[in-house]
Specification:
This protein is α/β, with parallel strands linked by helices. The protein has seven helices and 19 strands. Strands 1, 2, 3, 4, 5, 6 and 7 form a seven-stranded antiparallel β-sheet that branches. A hairpin with a 3-residue loop joins β3 and β4. The two termini are 13 Å apart. Bound molecules: FE2/S2 (inorganic) cluster.
Length: 325
C-alpha cells in the first residue's frame, strides 16, 4: 500500500533562529488535516527530487495546519537547503500523512526530554501534548548560542518555571550539558526522549545505556545515508546472502549482498511501502516470526527489534527470516 500523500499550501514561513525557518502547511480548501500525535513526522517532497522527513512541531490538537522546523544546514545534502531557498509562501507541496515512530509514553511518571539543536522540533509537539495532559516533564535544550535557539519566545514561560533548561555550548559540547551526569541516576518511572545531531545522539545513547531499554526513546533526524538512492544506483549493503520467506504464501527469496529485502520483494511483484530507505523513518516496519535480523536501523528499540524489522536496511544473522506478510 502506497504512503498516502496530499497537496498542501505553504501558508507562512517564519524565521525562528539563525538558519532555522518554520514552514506552515494548510489544506488549500481550508479543510481539516489528518490528525497526528506528538512525535509524528511527515515526508515532504521538495523540488529537485528530494524527499525528507520533518517532525511536526505544532500542537497536535490543531487540525488546520502542520508546522515543521527546518535547519539550513551547510552540511545538508540538498533537501533542507532547497526548502530554504526554493519554497515560498503560496507554493503547493506534496506531503505525506503523518506517521509516528517517536510517541510519548503515557505510562511514564516523568518525561525527560533532551533536544540537540533542530532536534527540538518533535519535542515542541511533545511539550504541547504533555501540558494538555498535565504530565510531569523537563526538557534540556542544547544549542550553540541564544541566536541559534529556535522557539525561544514559545518556550520562555517554561524556561522561567525551570521546566525547560537551555544550555549554550558555543560550539564546544564539553562546555554544554553534562549528559552522562544528568543520566547517571534514573528516577523510577522516568522515560527519556532524545533527538539531535550525531555526537549528541551518541553521548545520550552512551549515557543512558544503563536505563531499561523500554524507557529510552529517540529519533535520528540526520540519517547516515541522507539521500534516497537514485533509481538504478547501487547500494552497498556489503553483506552475505540470506533468505526470506513470506509466511502467508510460503514463497522464499534469496537476498543477495547487493540488494535489500525491499528490492527483492519488489522484483517479485510485492507492493512494499518505503520512504527514507535508510532505516530512519519507520515506514517499512515489518513483523517477523523467525530468524535473527541484523537490524541496521535507527528507529527500533531493543525490545521492538525482537519482533519487528526494517526491511529497507536489515540484513540477517540467520540463514533465513520469516516475515509475517
Ligand atoms: Fe524508512 Fe525503511 S523506508 S526505515
Amino acid at each position: 500500500m502506497a504512503i498516502e500523500t496530499m497537496e498542501l499550501r505553504v501558508r507562512r514561513i517564519t524565521n525562528e533562529a539563525e538558519g532555522i525557518n518554520t514552514f506552515e502547511f494548510v489544506d488549500p480548501n481550508g479543510n481539516d488535516l489528518p490528525e497526528f500525535t506528538a512525535g509524528s513526522h511527515v515526508d515532504v517532497h521538495i523540488s529537485g527530487g528530494f524527499l525528507r522527513q520533518y517532525s511536526l512541531c505544532n500542537d497536535p490538537r490543531e487540525r488546520h495546519r502542520y508546522v515543521v522546523g527546518v535547519l539550513n544546514d551547510p552540511q545538508s545534502t540538498g533537501g533542507s537547503r532547497s526548502m530554504h531557498e526554493n519554497v515560498r509562501a503560496g507554493d503547493r507541496i506534496t506531503i505525506s500523512h503523518p506517521r509516528n515512530n517517536f510517541p510519548v509514553k503515557d505510562e511514564a511518571k516523568h518525561h525527560l526530554l533532551l533536544a540537540g539543536g533542530i532536534g527540538v522540533t518533535p519535542m515542541m509537539a511533545m511539550i504541547e501534548q504533555l501540558m494538555t495532559t498535565n504530565a510531569d516533564f523537563t526538557m534540556h535544550y542544547c544549542t550553540r548560542s541564544v541566536e541559534q535557539t529556535a522557539f525561544r519566545s514559545r518556550l520562555a514561560g517554561l524556561a522561567a518555571e525551570g521546566r525547560v533548561v537551555n544550555h549554550y555550548d558555543g560550539g564546544d559540547p564539553s562546555k554544554g550539558l553534562d549528559i552522562p551526569g544528568l543520566l547517571e541516576h534514573r528516577q523510577e518511572g522516568t522515560h527519556l526522549y532524545y533527538c539531535g545531531p550525531t555526537g549528541f545522539m551518541l553521548a545520550t545513547k552512551e549515557g543512558s545505556a544503563h536505563w531499561p531499554s523500554e524507557t529510552v526513546h529517540f529519533e535520528y533526524f540526520a540519517p547516515v545515508a541522507q539521500e534516497k538512492p537514485a533509481a538504478g544506483e547501487a547500494v552497498d549493503l556489503g553483506d552475505a546472502e540470506f533468505q526470506i520467506t513470506i509466511s502467508s504464501t510460503g514463497a522464499t527469496y534469496n537476498i543477495p549482498g547487493d540488494k535489500s529485502i525491499v528490492d527483492v520483494l519488489r522484483e517479485n511483484g510485492l507492493d512494499v511501502d518505503t520512504s527514507c530507505e535508510a532505516g530512519t523513518c519507520g515506514t517499512c516496519k515489518t513483523h517477523y516470526l523467525e530468524g535473527e535480523p541484523d537490524h541496521n536501523d535507527f528507529v527500533l528499540t531493543d525490545a521492538e527489534q525482537k519482533e519487528w524489522v526494517m526491511i529497507c536496511c536489515a540484513r540477517s544473522k540467520s540463514e533465513k527470516i520469516i516475515l509475517d506478510l
